[in-house]
Amino acid sequence: MPTPEAAAVAAELRTAMGKLTRRVKHEDRIPLGQVAVLGALDRDGAMTTSDLAADQRVRPQSMARAVGLLMEQGLITRRPHPTDGRKSLVELTDAGRAALETERGRRAGWLAQAIEAELSDEERELLARGAALLERLAAR
What we know:
This protein is mainly alpha-helical. It has helices at about 5-25, 30-45, 50-55, 60-70, 95-120, 120-140; strands at about 75-80, 90. α2 (about 30-45) packs across α5 and α3 (about 50-55) crosses α4. The longest helix has 25 residues, at about 95-120.
């Protein structure tokens, strides 16, 4: 059972992260779920739709719809699985990689501007250290 202090920090952090996430989403041109798929393919390489669904913690049917939409836009493509003829792999196209980079740049650009405008040098250092802690928590 967490201590009351840890529970309070967790509640504040969850609220703040939710607000920041929603604000950053305003910069998006591609829906968040689709960007997440593109990002997973960029980080991890070609995957089956089932692997993508597991990676994103969604139902395979939901992932199949997202994959279909991304294929219609020319952002991803399918190719035969090299060792299992019953499966296919989904991978980024050059257009998908470019769209992902544009989306990442838009998000990071807004956030970088906000950090510069709102935070002191000391606060920026604190935020940088906090980002490493958030990474550790996310990996748990």
